[in-house]
Amino acid sequence: MSTNVTTFARGFADTPPEQISREQMKELAARYNGGPLCETGDAQAYGRSFDSKLDDAKGASQ
After folding, report:
1. Dihedral through CA 46, CA 53, CA 51, CA 10, nearest 10?
2. Among 55, 38, 56, CA closest to 47
3. Which of 8, 23, 27, 28 minimizes the number of CB atoms within 10 Å of its CB?
4. Distance CA 14, CA 32 (A)
5. Element (H, E) at 53
6. Tens-digit pLDDT profile for residues 7-38
């Protein structure tokens, strides 16, 4: 397993969903969208966009 995957798994896999921070959510969104290219501008923009819409989604679900 590569170092990036190991670090990623250690940072997220053992965290209960309700305890994931907004920063971690943005990183997950960027990684999901960008895959191995998660450091690119487009993937990072997707992560920021996800974060900016998170409050709207939470409000809609209540």
Report:
1. -90
2. 38
3. 23
4. 18
5. helix 41-60
6. 445 567 788 888 888 888 888 888 777 777 77
- Token pair, residue 37, equals 């290219």
Q: Tell me the C-alpha to C-alpha distance, in Å, between residue 23 and each of 9, 10, 26.
A: 16, 15, 5
Distance CA 53, CA 62 (A): 15
- Angle among Cα 34, 7, 18 to the nearest 5 degrees reads 80
Q: Is 20 exposed, middle or buried (0-12, 13-18, 19+ CB in 10 A)?
A: middle
pTM of the model: 0.56
